[in-house]
Amino acid sequence: MKFLLTVLLGAVLGAAGTFYYIYLYHADGSEQALMRNTLTTYLPFLSEYINK
Hints:
Elements: H1 2-25, H2 29-42, H3 47-50
């Protein structure tokens, strides 16, 4: 069970890291705005951190 939780945590952190890397280094301004809007639509509690 511990192994499964470790693998799931790694997958979640890896996906988040990939998303952030793409956001920083490969997305232009309009794509970054789309990514921010998507996150704040589905996770509204993050809006205070994302839309500074």
